[in-house]
Amino acid sequence: MTGGAHVAPREGRTTGGFRIMGVVNVTPDSFSDGGRYSEPEAAIAHGLELVAQGASILDIGGESTRPGAEPVSAAQELRRILPVIEGLVSAGTLAQISIDTSKAAVAAAALAAGATFVNDVTALRGDPEMAGLVAGSGADCCLMHMRGEPRTMQLDPRYADVVDDVKAFLAERLAFAIDGGVARERIMLDPGIGFGKTGEHNLELLARLDELVAIGRPVVIGSSRKGFLGAITGRAVDDRVAGTIATNVLAYERGARVFRVHDVAPVHDALAVTAATVTAPWATRTPTSSTR
Ligand code: HH2
Fold this sequence. Notes:
alpha/beta; 8-stranded parallel beta sheet; 8 strands
């Protein structure tokens, strides 16, 4: 399969060295915003607003991956995402456009329309054509850990050691992608918060995130509004921004650098302050020089 033209993604990085990936779900059934941006005009306007709030990547999705979600056809997914990508491109957005799909046919059309990033929650396992497509297009990609598939992934997930298991999986998928011709510097890794994990698994992955960062590729975190935040705070899905901020600030401190969120403005500000604090001169001063 051939992909889009060879592409050079725009940078758009902020001074703190982090990037925010704003979520644009063009779906009727996403867990937090399903149905809100099903019309292309609404999705395009929402995407542009997220960029104005600080997103440098827009992640466009046409299929929900929430627990229990039913798969949709490539044709249906394309009908949802293509007008949105085309609209964002013709609006001249400076953000990098990411396609959230595990189907190569959908990714190929999205890349041809101007996307330069493939966010594949199956980490190139869902479609045998995907690795070749990503390699040939020169797009960036995110490889995410998921245990099982969305329909069944939350049925009693178990791990020997969740961080060791996710780390081994991500290292194996990184090697697979590189063997398939994807440039190492194009690849990001994601522990897949909420994908075949209990709340405790999610928390342990966040607490020990530095162990995944040690693989040596940028780590993406997608904790935004997810169920484990509701379980801790008792908050409904639309009211989990404080929990989302806490997890993203913690993940930044542990070394994550890409943050996939719905609530871009507050997360951007929280990360900007965190980054300014931990990258300031005093943060790296040695004890001897600071005791005088
Ligand atoms: N989470 C969701 C979807 N895609 N991609 C990455 N890389 N990491 C994530 O954690 C991740 C993801 C689920 O969130 P959302 O898109 O809001 O919901 P839905 O899948 O129901 O559309």
